Amino acid sequence: MTEVLRASNVETMYGRVMAIRGISLTVKEGSVVTVMGSNGAGKTTILKTISGALDPFKGQVEFEGRDITALDPDVIARVGIAHSPEGREVFSLLSVKDNLMMGAYCRKDRDEVARDLEKVLGWFPVLRTFLEKQAIYLSGGQQQMLALGRAFMQRPRVMLLDEPSLGLSPLLISEIFQIIKRINVEEGVTMLLVEQNASVALPAADFGYVLETGRIVMEGERDVLMKSADIREFYLGIKAESARGDRRWKARKTWR
Ligand SMILES: Nc1ncnc2c1ncn2[C@@H]1O[C@H](COP(=O)(O)OP(=O)(O)OP(=O)(O)O)[C@@H](O)[C@H]1O
């Protein structure tokens, strides 16, 4: 698999606060890569730095071998990267249909756009019932579907997904992750998915990174990470039987 996205030694600051510190990651074409980390670890900052919403203080972002570091967000969108933001960030006063069409604003292939709209409404039938209604009337889960659908309408090569599971019920999370996997497999869209919820993100991914206070502290293929005792205990919540007894978890972490 060829590499489609690469971040090398990226550091991004908010004023004097360094939110991510020397982040390097690669995403292979056709894969789903997840960055897992707790609240405030820097997940959103990584995605915003890739999509051009934030300029890094240091480091480089490459898309298909082209340096896209600190280009304007609309240029990065046009090269083929779509950002589905956290908190859904839909245009609440626009209709559901207009929100979806905003995703396709720089496309000229009208017939394909119409077909893609049908595809999105097929994946998320509930959106069809609200098509002409303002997005403000959607529930959190429906807004998340709309944000994903809007990102797909851009017909990107890579989708950046910011916590699609946030605030959703287990049933909705499972529905949304099934669609994410379909977009990946059936539409060939590469995914970079950041999540606090490792138990949904890791099984859906091919490769994972663990982020702690702005640094990557662990990385590996999904199956390797799923077997890691630390990942199982601290991210997947599966408690291992320990002959050493209940020592404090920080003392037993092995990824630092
Ligand atoms: N606009 C901002 N100004 C100052 N500091 C910020 C700003 N946005 C984020 N930060 C800080 O940068 C760090 C990383 O934040 P970021 O939002 O990337 O984390 P996250 O892993 O996405 O967290 P969450 O899961 O809560 O969204 C945090 O310490 C946060 O407080």
From TrEMBL:
CDD domains: ABC_TM1139_LivF_branched. InterPro entries: AAA+_ATPase (IPR003593), ABC_transporter-like_ATP-bd (IPR003439), ABC_transporter-like_CS (IPR017871), BCAA_Transport_ATP-bd_LivF (IPR052156), P-loop_NTPase (IPR027417). Keywords: Amino-acid transport, ATP-binding, Nucleotide-binding, Transport. The keyword Iron-sulfur does not apply. GO terms for biological process: L-amino acid transport. Gene3D superfamilies: P-loop containing nucleotide triphosphate hydrolases (3.40.50.300). GO terms for molecular function: ATP binding; ATP hydrolysis activity; branched-chain amino acid transmembrane transporter activity. Residues 5-238 form the ABC transporter domain. Belongs to the ABC transporter superfamily. This is ABC transporter ATP-binding protein. It comes from Neptunicoccus cionae.
